[in-house]
Design a protein that fits this description.
Largest sheet: 5 strands, parallel
Number of domains: 1
Protein name: CoA-binding protein
Pfam families: CoA_binding_2 (PF13380)
Distance between the termini: 29 Å
Order of helices and strands: HEHEEHEHEH
Radius of gyration: 13 Å
Number of helices: 5
InterPro entries: CoA-bd, NAD(P)-bd_dom_sf
CATH architecture: 3-Layer(aba) Sandwich
Domain CoA-binding: 14-107
Length: 139
């Protein structure tokens, strides 16, 4: 895969300016990647919103069963699901009016990424927010 979905300016802007991140697949399971990344962004002053069928409170934030249940505007939807399920989450992000989708390492769905771009969303794919944060140190 090329770097179409790893634009430096988009990554910098999302990490530096996006305040509300919905984490699809975030459950109350410390040690899982979604939990670690949500905790990192929360520690950097970002609001995190857990989205998981269990709709449980995670890291002190109330959870929602789906993106359509989230009552707040979401800047970035981070999709912590396997690639074969990512497309559904991306489509829900588009329908919810999110500003961007971020698919972490090893979560790749080019068709879904193109649908998101065609809908006007920024897309980052196959990148880790924590690694990118460490490389850029946004404010």
């Amino acid at each position: 895969m090329d770097n179409r979905y790893a634009d430096e300016k988009v990554i910098q802007r999302l990490l530096g300016q996006a305040q509300t991140w919905a984490f699809v697949g975030l459950g109350n399971h410390p040690g899982r990647t979604a939990y670690d990344q949500a905790r990192l962004l929360q520690s950097r002053g970002r609001r995190i919103i857990p989205v998981h069928p269990a709709a449980e409170t995670v890291l002190g934030e109330p959870g929602y069963a789906s993106l359509s249940d989230v009552p707040a505007k979401v800047d970035v939807v981070a999709v912590y699901r396997r690639s074969e399920y990512a497309g559904k989450a991306v489509d829900e992000a588009i329908a919810a009016g999110a500003g961007a989708v971020w698919l972490p390492l090893d979560v790749v769905d080019v068709a879904a990424a193109e649908r998101a771009r065609d809908a006007g969303l920024d897309v980052v794919m196959n990148r880790c927010p924590g690694v990118e944060w460490a490389l850029r140190r946004p404010s």
